[in-house]
Design goal:
Elements: H1 11-40, H2 42-45, H3 54-61, H4 65-77, E1 82-84, E2 89-91, H5 94-100, H6 110-120, H7 123-132, H8 143-165, H9 172-178, E3 181-185, H10 191-199, E4 204-209, H11 212-224, H12 227-230, E5 233-237, E6 248-254, H13 263-272, E7 274-285, H14 297-315, H15 328-338, E8 343-349, E9 353-359
Helix pairs in contact: 1-6, 3-4, 6-8, 8-10
Amino acid sequence: MTVLTTRAVDPDRLNAFLGQVIGDLGATISAALVVIGDRLGLYRGLRGGVPVTTDELAERTGTAAAYVAPWLANQAAGGYVVYDPATQNWTMTPEQEAALADPDSPAFFPGSMQLALGILRDVTAIEERFRTGDGFGWHEHDDDLFSGTERFFRPGYVANLVSTWLPALDGVVDRLHAGADVVDVGCGHGASTILMAQAFPRSRFLGLDYHEASIATARRRAVDAGVGVAERTRFEVADAGDVPAGTAALVTMFDCLHDMGDPVAAARAALHSLSPDGVLMVVEPLAGDRTEDNLHALGRVFYGASTLVCTPSSLSQPGRRALGAQAGPELLTSVLRDAGFTRVRIATTSPVNLVIEARP
């Protein structure tokens, strides 16, 4: 029997901690309001820097002022919009607009809140997996996780993929401009695949994902992107370990290797699909090699995602490796070397991404 000892509570430290918890509670509840504001166009209705009243915003967006009023107050309390008590008007700063109202901005953030709400709908199922140790597959999650993931990652891909990440790989951009085969493993809704296809009109692209619904969406996205993309881009349902052997110049894995049950087998399949001078590009969440390296705000987000999405996904697959979203360069490098890659290096980083180049 465990005997608990009574320990003195410092009231100042307790109050400080409770203040932190209240902030977290407010942020959790407000995530739903961010998603509502995004879907109803409330943020877009505030764009331009011209102050508006509550009634004007409601009329502009076709919403009810009785709901818009507390929504605006919540957003102002969180620093997401600006309130002028003298005029009782509301505005957004250019920075708030970039993060909340401009879907083409690399800082656009509502997709992350949509992703978070999708995850939270599966809390009961994940709680049960804590008890049993069983997995919970990507395909079993709420649909908002799939759409939110695309909207969360796509701005970063738009900002970095063609301009920074691919040029960081030795010689790859020249080969893509000349015309080459590219395989995008774990492509989801196809955002990364289509961006590359738009940038390199002489190359051919194959996107693979085991999630059939995501592949269906990716095919629609390719058609929407126009004939120039659709005729050079294919999307197929396939597990990461079943990547077809071939002579691709480039294989990519965007934010998915850590989700796989057997990442070594997936990387080995990628190796077999490459030409002798081909490159595997692995994009992963930016993380240090030790737990203490990641105990900060971004690490908190990634460890949360690892607990609720990444680890359950891996545990639902053969291998059950469960690397998690904070694997770190040392562990990721060892996975790639175990798969047979002989040259592995950190090609570049962004504030939230680690980009690894692996060669046969």
